[in-house]
Amino acid sequence: MNGLAISPFIAALPKVELHLHIEGTLTPSLRWELAHRNKITLPYATFEDLKASYAVTLNHRPELNGRQPGIPTFLEAYFAGCEVLRTEEDFYDLAMAYLRRCAEMNVRYTEPFFDIQAHTRRGVAATAVLDGYLRAQGDAKCQFGVRSRWILCFLRDEPVAKGLAAYVEARPWAAGTVEGGKGLFHAVGLASNAYERPPMLFEEGFALAKADGLHVTMHCDFGQKDTHEHMHEAIFQVCDGHGSERIDHGLDAEDKEELWQGLVDRKIGLTLCPHAYHRRTATDVLFPKIRRLRDRGVKMCINSDDPTLMHDVWIDGNMQKVYTYCEFSKAEMVQLVRNAVDMCWAEEDVKSAIYKELDEINVLE
Ligand code: HPA
Ligand code: ZN
């Protein structure tokens, strides 16, 4: 189920990643190193024990599926990892490790999510997080040629007022029309546990971002309680009825014509993360579902979500999965990357350069 060998075609394909939580790229080895650097005792005696703890957990939704005693949920494991991130240097190192890996995987451009509240609620200064990522954004462009525009996520299971306060604090690091904005983040998103936390709760946050000239995206997790209602809000109600610009996951739209037709009509693309669903969905259910959505004209692109907590399957492994199990042709795989370029919020010259590279790929070989 986990790792497929990456074919030379997928490895060489220029890529764009639009659904990636930076905290979900923390490797066991960097976590181990940062714990030592910050004199934090991890609840694992050895590095091998720490590594074993990354074999996370299928009980992603304890509210729906019950708890397995002693086993953390996916999000608990994710937030536990954050504990070692304390200083600007830590956030810089985390981001640079991911962006270096982007270069190795031929990811030309990426829009990473970051959870500022996951750090400030532990007493970490917002400036440490934001300056660390900002420095990595600049250095990765120069050193690796990897461009990035970042997305600040509201934690949807925290009170809305805390999300709004986090946005106001981070605003000087925004792009858009924010005067003197440092240009780190170009959008807001909505992440963490969606249980009984529908998108419309955060309408005020989306409005703040829009007023600052930023973009808006939001998670509609696969298989979540009230998933169709959440999707309905994201497509038709948020942002003063205009809908979200993109939806992260959103695979459940396939169940209802009103939803997938709404995505097509409103030109809302989905940022899919196939391995995240494949962990708990049969191959012959999942990949035909992705194909049907695509065949109905829903725009989609392929991403990795939280690769180190998802069996170390990165964007190349996720693309390999749809190449193999959806039986897409080379031309169709190139189209998936083109979709990501269409859906992304990069500068026009960055987009043009990637389109040009894609046009030059020989899909007949
Ligand atoms: N779902 C929702 N929020 C998240 C996730 C996820 O898979 N990963 C990090 N934040
Ligand atoms: Zn996600």
TrEMBL record:
Superkingdom of the organism of origin: Eukaryota
Entry GO terms, CC: cytosol
UniProt keywords, alphabetically: Hydrolase, Metal-binding
Domain Adenosine deaminase positions: 14-360
Cofactor annotation: Zn(2+)
GO BP terms: adenine catabolic process; hypoxanthine salvage
InterPro entries from the UniProt entry: A_deaminase_dom (IPR001365), Ado/ade_deaminase (IPR006330), Metal_Hydrolase (IPR032466)
Coiled coil: none
GO molecular function annotation: adenine deaminase activity; metal ion binding
Keyword Magnesium: no
NCBIfam families to which the protein is assigned, alphabetical: aden_deam (TIGR01430)
Descriptive protein name: Adenosine deaminase domain-containing protein
UniProt organism field: Penicillium subrubescens
